[in-house]
Amino acid sequence: MVIEHEDxxxxxxxxxxxxxxxxxxxxxxxERLIAEAIPLHIESMREQGEPVPRSDGRWLYDGPxxxxxxxxxxEEARATTVAYPPKGDQDTANPLSRHRRMQVPSRVAAQRQRxxxxxxxxxxxxxxxxxxxxxxxxVRTNGRICELGTGLGxxxxxxxxxxxxxxxxxxxxxxxxxxxxxxxxxxxxPAWVQFVxxxxxxxxxxxxxxxxxFADAEGGKWYGLDLTLSALNPGGMLVLDDLVxxxxxxxTEKETHRQKMDEIRSQIFGNPDIVVTELxxxxxxxxxxxxxxxxxx
Length: 297
Ligand SMILES: C[S@@+](CC[C@H](N)C(=O)[O-])C[C@H]1O[C@@H](n2cnc3c(N)ncnc32)[C@H](O)[C@@H]1O
Description:
- This protein is α/β, with parallel strands linked by helices.
- The chain has helices spanning 27-47, 66-69, 106-117, 126-137, 154-163, 178-185, 200-203, 225-230, 251-269, and strands spanning 2-6, 9-13, 21-24, 58-61, 78-81, 144-148, 170-175, 193-197, 210-215, 232-240, 274-279, 285-290.
- The strands form two sheets. A seven-stranded mixed β-sheet has the order 8-7-6-9-10-12-11, with helices on both faces. Strands 3-2-1-4-5 form a five-stranded mixed β-sheet.
- Helix 5 (154-163) links the parallel strand 6 and strand 7.
- S-adenosylmethionine binds at residues 122-124, 147, 149, 151, 154-155, 174-177, 180, 199-200, 216-219.
């Protein structure tokens, strides 16, 4: 977004959204007007079936007189960031987020489509998916990854997208809903992806040590978290999402969710073998790594 000031008038436009402009008498006014105009403009593009471009989220301010100086607006602009949300992503509430996004891999888009057709609304958001792809890409040679809660395969698709074209890895995904698992399996997955239909806390202990676990089901997260932590290899990573209760939950459910997440935090932050941080994207992510002991090296 670019904000300009000339001859007492303020203007704003969005290079990524041609035609999305605002004019005002003050900087505050033009910022408010352009903030109102962006979602309307995007909505109208969506209604007309036009592709909505991704943004790098820059908020550029060109000080007084800069336009008349005739210099490139972006050249010396004072840059801060502004929320410029891809719709439907909860993490965009953070106005300091920079939303430079990966291109959504086609296999992710295909699983999203499957999820939409099945009215399944619990798939991972793109910001979570990107993290999964990045972490999957870092997994050691012959590494093993496990997802608890396949859903319709959106998170799995991000993991696979981060790994391809490797063939040395194994990805196991566990889902206790047989119908959902079957729908997810309809896609063409690499041979190193294994679907398990069953209860996460029963299946997980049979898998041996893992290098990356995405805990996205009640089993192994809300209960049986000790099994998940025990399954991590030294240096192995755990991604646990939904720290913040979803909007659709009732007040009572939200309170239960918060209490449960606090218990999970205590269990993980209190474990001397684990290094952990919380990330603010999506509905809150906890990223933990099992320490490598000297005897492991
Ligand atoms: C949030 S969704 C998973 C979304 C998926 N991981 C993604 O990234 O798109 C949670 C899934 O976990 C499954 N699930 C819930 N409890 C489970 C358990 N104890 N064992 C295995 N799967 C479970 C649910 O049926 C649901 O499909």
